[in-house]
Amino acid sequence: MGNDWNHLVENMSNRLAPSMAKDHPNLPVLKEEGCYYYGVDGRTYLDFTSGIATTNVGHRHPKVVEAIKEGADQLGHGPSGVIIYESILKLADRLAEIMPGDLDCFFFGNSGAEAIEGAIKLAKHVTERPYIVSFIGGFHGRSMGALSVTSSKSKYRKFLNPTGSYQVPYAQVEDAPEGTDPEQYVVQQLEKDFERLFAHQVTPDEVAAVLVEPVLGEGGYIVPPKAWLQKVRELCDYYGLLLIFDEVQTGFGRTGEWFASQTFDVTPDIMAIAKGIANGMPLSATVAPNELMKQWPLGSHATTFGGNPIACSAANAVLDVIQEENLLENTKETGAYAAEKLKKIKDRHKSIGRIRSVGLMIGIEIVDPVTGKPNSEGLFNILDKALENGVLFYFGGNQTEIIRMIPPLTISKEQIDEGLKMFDEALTAYEEEITVY
């Protein structure tokens, strides 16, 4: 197998598009299970990425695997509407029970970007308005509609000219002037930003919806104050706009509740969900109240593969596991535990800037130990050293300055200890290498 693997990896750049194959770290693996990857090199790696916040109940959870096998024994493909099947109907009923507010009607797709596309189309269709307002730093996908509201990195939009949206600043409590209340500051800034937008660029009656990540994801794991998100809701109501939550990354327990909407006590009009919904099987949904969704008639939106019966079977099993294993509570406990340990690690390392966290969605800023400025080069050096030690993290942030710690929600405190010990050692090795001290 070694020679075959070597040939395949060496030929990867010729067979896979660079935009797909050049992510980090390209770790060749044979198997995954629980919180671990098993490498071709014979080593075991602790996974603090969850497939980018997707395998929330752990890799290849036995109950999910069994559901996939049983589902495949019955049906391999829909398409929903041409036929109808138990797994999709059961999933819709069960999701309606855990969704916030009156969000109870679902259009199933395959990916987060598809769910965002659906949310944008639904909002524009029912309001008959052409524009969406989103937030600077937000990431909502790379298909053209989703890209029009994505601004986490300018390179994603280069040469593509996505249109149809306006952006305002996301909550940045760190920007609050000294002597001011940070929460009050960002709320006041939000009001001013909306007033400025509607005075100079677009009128409210041209805007269909405001789209926001309740926690900024790829843009840097920025956790806004509750009051800021609640003000977004208030402004939407005041100006007569729909509110869309992108919960692709925050959903299915990541913040310690089923959805971040419940963590922040804000209910949107439309929601996009994906990633953790089926633990790695391709599935997503655009969600809205039935009274809103029924205004979206047959033919205005459609899908061939969305709501695949096997993926829906996996999603039903995911809901079982989260409930049976008390993973929401585990997320709160282990997330707080990890954040506290990271603060102690930060005290020992000048390479760490800010730490932001909610549940098991943790961002670790990597900075130059001398200047305190974002340090992308140092980040990848630290990630490589952590991987050599046996733990896998991911990256994010506008300047690629954030290490994302997003382990499966099944993670134990012992595994957090294990992984953060390896991370601490990686930081030490990096700082010794650049002779900081």
UniProtKB/TrEMBL annotation:
The keyword Lipid biosynthesis does not apply. Keywords: Aminotransferase, Pyridoxal phosphate, Transferase. InterPro entries: Aminotrans_3, Aminotrans_3_PPA_site, Class-III_PLP-dep_AT, PyrdxlP-dep_Trfase, PyrdxlP-dep_Trfase_major, PyrdxlP-dep_Trfase_small. GO terms for molecular function: (S)-3-amino-2-methylpropionate transaminase activity; 4-aminobutyrate:2-oxoglutarate transaminase activity; identical protein binding; pyridoxal phosphate binding. Its cofactor is pyridoxal 5'-phosphate. The keyword Metal-binding does not apply. Pathway: Amino-acid degradation; 4-aminobutanoate degradation. SUPFAM superfamilies: PLP-dependent transferases. Pfam families: Aminotran_3. It comes from the Bacteria. It catalyses: 4-aminobutanoate + 2-oxoglutarate = succinate semialdehyde + L-glutamate; (S)-3-amino-2-methylpropanoate + 2-oxoglutarate = 2-methyl-3-oxopropanoate + L-glutamate. Its EC number is 2.6.1.19, 2.6.1.22. Belongs to the class-III pyridoxal-phosphate-dependent aminotransferase family. This is (S)-3-amino-2-methylpropionate transaminase.
